Amino acid sequence: MASRYDRAITVFSPDGHLFQVEYAQEAVKKGSTAVGIRGTNIVVLGVEKKSVAKLQDERTVRKICALDDHVCMAFAGLTADARVVINRARVECQSHKLTVEDPVTVEYITRFIATLKQKYTQSNGRRPFGISALIVGFDDDGISRLYQTDPSGTYHAWKANAIGRNAKTVREFLEKNYTEDAIASDSEAIKLAIKALLEVVQSGGKNIELAIIRRNQPLKMFSAKEVELYVTEIEKEKEEAEKKKSKKSV
Amino acid sequence: MAATFFGEVVKAPCREEEEEEEEEGRRETPEDREVRQQLARKREVRLLRRQTKTSLEVALLEKYPCSKFIIAIGNNAVAFLSSFVMNSGVWEEVGCAKLWNEWCRTTDTTHLSSTEAFCVFYHLKSNPSVFLCQCSCYVAEDQQYQWLEKVFGSCPRKNMQITILTCRHVTDYKTSESTGSLPSPFLKALKTQNFKDSACCPLLEQPNIVHDLPAAVLSYCQVWKIPAILYLCYTDVMKLDLITVEAFKPILSTRSLKGLVKNIPQSTEILKKLMTTNEIQSNIYT
């Protein structure tokens, strides 16, 4: 039945599905995992780094991009679609700043991106954007924000979320481990993001890229060494927890 | 017969089988025959002995007695058996199946390297009646029967147990729920009438069906009354993926694999290492 109603985006199926939008969500699952965590004083974005070809310049393969000084996003899905969306969002951020003399709020730019995506689910001759995005940042009121958009054009605020390949596994891990203690300090929030990614990333710390925004500070991308430091700390804590467990059982 | 606008009389297409038409249609020229034979030779499934690389004269399971046969089809199933089963014992290669079809990445049919052959058969040194097959290549519809004949033979024994492991994309799973809410990856089982043990996961519900080589093996076992079970993992990541491979873990506790798996934590480490030698992803998706 799907095949009769899935050729054009502007056609509903009898049971109310927009198949092209649902297929676009499958395209998102082909991208590598991205996780976003909202802490009290920090927002963290972690992504599984794509393996680059030998002759490819690593710097041009980025999943985390700044949209403005105080907002950044990570995406999963079609690379080219992401580039288009990011460019439009960046222009909108500056246009907003020039027009109303205030930087965008995270919610505003998320709504802009979501509206853009929704437009493409309602025009003929166009297909939906095949990306989901995690948008993080701090507003002027100093509160941290995390939003997620998907190809259908919906957006929601989250405390922590994951998109891309194996996102379900990461989300289940976050549901179990996102506690007030876990995000009490900046380093704890960062460790939670790394731990969540390690659940699904095939080869450990060297395939993880991390970015944070602290209140009133610009986006900071972690170097591979800094990520490794956190990974070693996590592994140490794991070992100590296991030692304690075995001591208790003895 | 029909008359066209221009007054010519043409033969109207007719599905009725006429005597003369049949003969004319069936008469193939020598060239057609040659092409057909060449194609058949190209697509032949050959089962080769390991050391000598000569063809096996009889079917694999007619030559060797078999009590248990585990077949992994697809890269995730193969990775599961490699890390959990093949590392827990000493397995000896007894042969490999070489075949070519349009899915193969090479056009050279006579010199397939061992990486392309990818349908390798092993048996356990400590118990040579336990067989394992790692099949990473696609076996086309016209080749499946040949594969079955060369492996099982024309009159297979009934006292063996077959276990098949394979993967399928979750979008092929027909259900009234939306695929977004499915707990993928998840395991479903399908067994033949003679398989009396219980499966370690729910059975595959209608209207879902099994495809390709796993379906061919299962049908063959059902016809020949051989106890067989297929474990099908529905996943949304078809390439080699840690979470998908780990979804096969419940099978380790079943009778099919009992005694063949020793060190699970070590196997998990080996699996992680397998994942690191992964191919460069395409640039379309990030």
Q: What is the annotated CATH architecture of chain A?
A: 4-Layer Sandwich
Largest sheet features of chain B? 8 strands, mixed
The CATH class assignment of chain A is: Alpha Beta
* CATH uppermost class of chain B: Alpha Beta
Protein name (chain A): Proteasome subunit alpha type
Family (chain A): Belongs to the peptidase T1A family.
Subunit structure (chain A): The 26S proteasome consists of a 20S proteasome core and two 19S regulatory subunits.
Organism (chain A): Gorilla gorilla gorilla
Plain-language structure description:
The complex is a heterodimer of chains A (250) and B (286). Chain A is built from seven helices and ten strands. Chain A has helices at 2-5, 19-28, 79-100, 106-119, 167-177, 186-198, 224-249; strands spanning 34-38, 42-48, 64-66, 71-77, 131-138, 144-149, 155-157, 160-163, 208-214, 220-221. In chain A, the strands form two sheets. In chain A, strands 8-1-2-9-10 form a five-stranded antiparallel beta sheet. In chain A, strands 3-4-5-6-7 form a five-stranded antiparallel beta sheet. Chain B has 286 residues and is α/β, with parallel strands linked by helices. Chain B has nine helices and ten strands. Chain A binds chain B through residues 22, 25-27, 29-32, 50-53, 61, 63, 75-80, 82, 165-166, 168-169, 200, 202-203, and chain B through 171, 178-180, 183-184, 236-237, 241-243, 272, 275-276, 278, 280-281, 283-286.
In short:
The complex is a heterodimer of chains A (250) and B (286). By secondary structure, chain A is an alpha+beta fold. Chain A has seven helices and ten strands.
Topology (SSEs and partners):
The complex is a heterodimer of chains A (250) and B (286).
Chain A: H1 2-5, H2 19-28, E1 34-38, E2 42-48, E3 64-66, E4 71-77, H3 79-100, H4 106-119, E5 131-138, E6 144-149, E7 155-157, E8 160-163, H5 167-177, H6 186-198, E9 208-214, E10 220-221, H7 224-249
Antiparallel strand pairs in A: 1-2, 1-8, 2-9, 3-4, 4-5, 5-6, 6-7, 9-10
Helix pairs in contact in A: 3-4, 6-7
Chain B: E1 2-3, E2 9-10, H1 19-26, H2 30-42, E3 46-49, H3 60-63, E4 68-73, H4 75-85, E5 91-98, H5 114-117, E6 119-124, E7 127-135, H6 141-152, E8 161-169, E9 186-191, H7 212-223, E10 228-235, H8 242-246, H9 264-276
Parallel strand pairs in B: 4-7, 4-8, 8-10
Antiparallel strand pairs in B: 1-2, 3-5, 5-6, 6-7, 9-10
Helix pairs in contact in B: 4-9, 6-7
